[in-house]
Amino acid sequence: MIRLYGMMWMMLVAIGAVAQDTVLQPIVNDYIDEANRIREVSEVNRLSNALYREKFGKEQAVNIVTDIPPNGAYYRIAFQKTPYLADTGLLDIWHRRLADDTASIEQLTERYYGLLKGDNPGNGYVLDYIKTPSMQAGYFFDEQGHALYIVMRSPAQEFVMATIEMDLTAREKVELARDFIRKTKFVGG
């Protein structure tokens, strides 16, 4: 898992990400509540390990997070599964302004998808896209895993990557991804 986050960071450099803005400046989203922001690495790892244990019945081999970057943030989030049942998860979200990257949302999403999929065969992975005049987005996940990955891009070259850790079914992950994307609004540029 550490390798995956390292590769994602290197990928950002490779696609020309440059700005060090905070994640809350370019977007608003109903899932992001400042009261639920997690500022301590130990708390991020504690929640991540609890979610992993809930899904797989064992601890993660290592704590994944070693620092919180200036252009990223962690939040506790809730997803309303039914009118009477909400599930809690961990949102890792960060923002960059893309510099002269003309890649389509499909190309951007598939870059991350390829890194995270690694040597695993394509079976069990879901990959889809949503396009509107104000945003293009892609999302993907392993049906057997507990993480959902969302890539979003505005026409003004604002780029957001979100990872949500939560014990959801494949159908619930699709619902959450679509709802998260629908509720995201780019406010800068």
Q: Can you summarize this structure?
A:
This protein is an alpha+beta fold and 189 residues long. It contains four helices and nine strands; from the N terminus they run αββαββαββββαβ.
- Determine Rg (CA atoms, Å): 16 Å
Mean pLDDT: 81
Query: Which segments are poorly predicted (pLDDT under 50) over 5 or more consecutive residues?
Result: 1-21
In what range is the share of β-strand residues?
A: 25-35%
Query: H/E element string?
Result: HEEHEEHEEEEHE
What distance lies between the first and last C-alpha atoms, to the nearest angstrom?
A: 34 Å
The spatial strand order of the largest sheet comes to 2-3-4-8-7-6-5
Reported for the largest beta sheet, the result is: 7 strands, antiparallel
Description:
The structure is a single chain. The chain has helices spanning 2-14, 41-56, 105-117, 170-182; strands spanning 27-28, 37-38, 72-82, 85-97, 125-132, 135-142, 147-153, 158-165, 185-186. It has 189 residues and is an alpha+beta fold. The strands form two sheets. A seven-stranded antiparallel sheet has the order 2-3-4-8-7-6-5, sandwiched between helices. It has a two-stranded antiparallel ribbon with strand order 1-9. It is globular, with a radius of gyration of 16 Å. Mean pLDDT is 81; it is low at 1-21.
